[in-house]
């Protein structure tokens, strides 16, 4: 059990020890614990605090904190809710991710905690009965979402109805379900769950349920003054435009003043441990808090960020996420050009040191091998390699410039000149086996030995060919005709003395399958050059990428992108449609919708579930 400091509310004693949800309401400037039976009932006149605890089989629990602000909540309550979220984070050891939730604009992660939905209640929370006194007015609700359902009250008017959404009309004696003809099957199913929720929670199970297809559907239209056709066009048919994201980093001083950084290129090294920062990404805002900052500094930084959003007149849908150093999510990291992955290496180094210490205690001498010994033997072949291209019955010697550029459709003869002394010093085993005579190696593309690559130091392998036989076989008139199109090269190598760029397939919608998280790539055409950095690559891989890019095309400055943060222009050049995926939180079997394609990541296994009605 942790010990609370004087700056942390006593209401947080014992929190986070059990999995599930814990909810508090701000009432009379104090935290009131909400009983489980009232979870999901949020009053528009209050602010709430929620803790989600996930106990994992291995490792520490995972905590997510949300503070929910009702439309009619006072500014005092709203500020207090954000302060209490920070205190709760401190009570849990500063290892949480915090989210601000605004009524009507809640994140899908928040909505997923409450099945099937949340329907905010007008008025203020009363600790005596959990509900404020209220009459039962007729309300019209719009339901949107295939997994996490957003329920929003709309004006009780015929003009609120449209053909694209699903609506619930809640009256004192009956609940109606109206589904537009263009609404999805999944939305209709989720809306039906909302109807059952309203029946059980607002009518104590004592009311009738009707859909517009029933025989008594005419009763529905009497609430709107009689039946009349609904216009075909509706505002909900407009496609949402994805705004262009331009991230801006601002430092927040101890007084809450914001200081913009003077560079548009973001790097993790810019984030100092004793400071707080705001990352403004237009539709979403992150507050990053260094490990060495105090609770007071963190409260000040959050208040300053919220005040900034108010002064800027930002939409209430703007997401505000609070992150502590070391707990940055993938979305936050994607806005930085450089974000080294140090967790794995630090764990490796820690384990290596423990093993070494254990052996030393047993009396064994421990000696660590240098990483350089993992590299293949290197032979300096500069100005000593000759390469011929086989063209039918002709053999042509390539120039020094061209001999490091091979084509996959041609055959070559490579000869390395070295005297016996060099051979003995660099490859004594080979010399002994051949008695000093030349060695002939038959090498197939894709199976090159390390020694072959080290002969060239820098090597580019292009797809296609320049020989007459290749052109005749594949009906190619001009081997350079594809140079104006995009080319994708996989960069590999062990060091600057042995590095290669191998051109890979770039075929329409399958082009993305050529990308591998363990490699770096160069994507280029006549107009632009991109470098793509896989998530599993190392600093040495990045160094090889920079060197290989200069060797391949030294005249142009590339646009660097990391896996997971690719701009649309990258996918356009790659020839791919942009495929976007969103996470389904707290999923259940009902989330296997027949209209979707879903991916289940089980770490060691990945499953793809394809719905019967998916396109």
Automatic annotation (TrEMBL):
<feature type="domain" description="Gelsolin-like">
    <location>
        <begin position="31"/>
        <end position="111"/>
    </location>
</feature>
<dbReference type="Pfam" id="PF00626">
    <property type="entry name" value="Gelsolin"/>
</dbReference>
<dbReference type="InterPro" id="IPR029006">
    <property type="entry name" value="ADF-H/Gelsolin-like_dom_sf"/>
</dbReference>
<feature type="domain" description="Gelsolin-like">
    <location>
        <begin position="148"/>
        <end position="211"/>
    </location>
</feature>
<protein>
    <recommendedName>
        <fullName>Gelsolin-like domain-containing protein</fullName>
    </recommendedName>
</protein>
<dbReference type="InterPro" id="IPR007123">
    <property type="entry name" value="Gelsolin-like_dom"/>
</dbReference>
<dbReference type="InterPro" id="IPR007122">
    <property type="entry name" value="Villin/Gelsolin"/>
</dbReference>
<feature type="domain" description="Gelsolin-like">
    <location>
        <begin position="263"/>
        <end position="333"/>
    </location>
</feature>
């Amino acid at each position: 059990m942790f010990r609370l400091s004087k700056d942390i509310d006593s209401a947080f004693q014992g929190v986070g020890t059990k999995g599930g949800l814990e909810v508090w309401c701000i009432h009379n400037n104090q935290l009131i614990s909400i009983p489980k039976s009232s979870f999901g009932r949020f009053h528009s006149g209050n602010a709430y605090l929620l803790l989600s605890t996930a106990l994992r089989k291995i490792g520490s629990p995972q905590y997510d904190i949300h503070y929910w602000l009702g439309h009619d909540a006072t500014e005092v309550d709203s500020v207090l809710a954000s302060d209490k979220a920070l205190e709760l984070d401190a009570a849990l050891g500063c290892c949480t991710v915090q989210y601000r939730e605004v009524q009507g604009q809640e994140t899908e992660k928040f909505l997923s905690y409450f099945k099937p939905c949340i329907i905010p209640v007008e008025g203020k929370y009363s600790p005596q009965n959990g509900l404020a006194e209220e009459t039962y007015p007729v309300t019209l609700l719009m339901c949107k979402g295939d997994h996490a359902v957003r329920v929003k009250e709309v004006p009780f008017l015929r003009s609120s109805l449209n053909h694209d959404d699903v609506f619930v009309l809640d009256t004192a004696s009956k609940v109606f379900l109206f589904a537009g003809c263009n609404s999805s099957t999944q939305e209709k199913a989720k809306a039906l769950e909302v109807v059952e929720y309203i029946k059980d929670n607002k009518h104590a199970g004592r009311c009738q349920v009707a859909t517009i297809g029933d025989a008594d559907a005419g009763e529905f239209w009497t609430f709107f003054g009689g039946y009349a056709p609904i216009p075909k066009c509706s505002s909900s048919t407009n496609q949402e435009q994805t705004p262009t994201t331009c991230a801006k980093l601002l430092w927040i001083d101890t007084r809450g003043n914001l200081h913009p950084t003077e560079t548009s290129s973001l790097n993790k090294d810019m984030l100092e441990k004793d400071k707080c920062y705001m990352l403004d990404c237009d539709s979403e805002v992150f507050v990053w808090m260094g490990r060495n900052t105090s609770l007071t500094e963190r409260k000040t930084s959050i208040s300053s960020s919220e005040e900034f959003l108010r002064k800027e007149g930002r939409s209430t849908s703007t997401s505000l996420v609070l992150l502590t150093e070391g707990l940055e999510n993938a979305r936050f990291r994607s806005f930085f050009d450089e974000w080294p992955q140090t967790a794995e290496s630090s764990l490796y180094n820690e384990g290596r040191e423990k093993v070494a210490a254990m052996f030393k205690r047993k009396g064994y001498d421990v000696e660590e091998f240098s990483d350089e010994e993992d590299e293949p033997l290197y032979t300096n072949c500069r100005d000593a390699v000759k390469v011929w291209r086989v063209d039918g019955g002709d053999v042509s010697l390539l120039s020094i410039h061209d001999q490091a550029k091979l084509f996959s459709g041609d055959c070559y003869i490579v000869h390395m000149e070295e005297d016996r002394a060099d051979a003995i010093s660099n490859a004594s085993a080979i010399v002994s086996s051949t008695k000093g005579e030349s060695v002939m190696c038959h090498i197939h593309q894709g199976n090159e030995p390390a020694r072959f690559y080290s002969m060239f130091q820098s090597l580019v392998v292009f797809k296609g060919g320049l020989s007459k036989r290749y052109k005749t076989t594949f009906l190619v008139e001009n081997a350079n005709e594809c140079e104006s199109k995009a080319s994708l090269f996989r960069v590999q190598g062990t060091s600057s003395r042995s590095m290669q760029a191998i051109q890979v397939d770039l075929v329409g919608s399958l082009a993305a399958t050529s990308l591998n998280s363990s490699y770096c790539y160069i994507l280029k055409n006549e107009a632009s050059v991109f470098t793509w950095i896989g998530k599993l690559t190392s600093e040495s891989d990045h160094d090889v990428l920079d060197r290989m890019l200069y060797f391949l095309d030294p005249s142009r400055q590339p646009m660097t992108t990391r896996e997971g943060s690719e701009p649309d222009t990258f996918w356009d050049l790659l020839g791919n449609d942009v495929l976007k995926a969103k996470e389904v939180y707290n999923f259940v079997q009902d989330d296997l919708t027949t209209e979707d394609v879903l991916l289940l990541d089980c770490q060691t296994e990945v499953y793809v579930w394809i719905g019967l009605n998916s396109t």
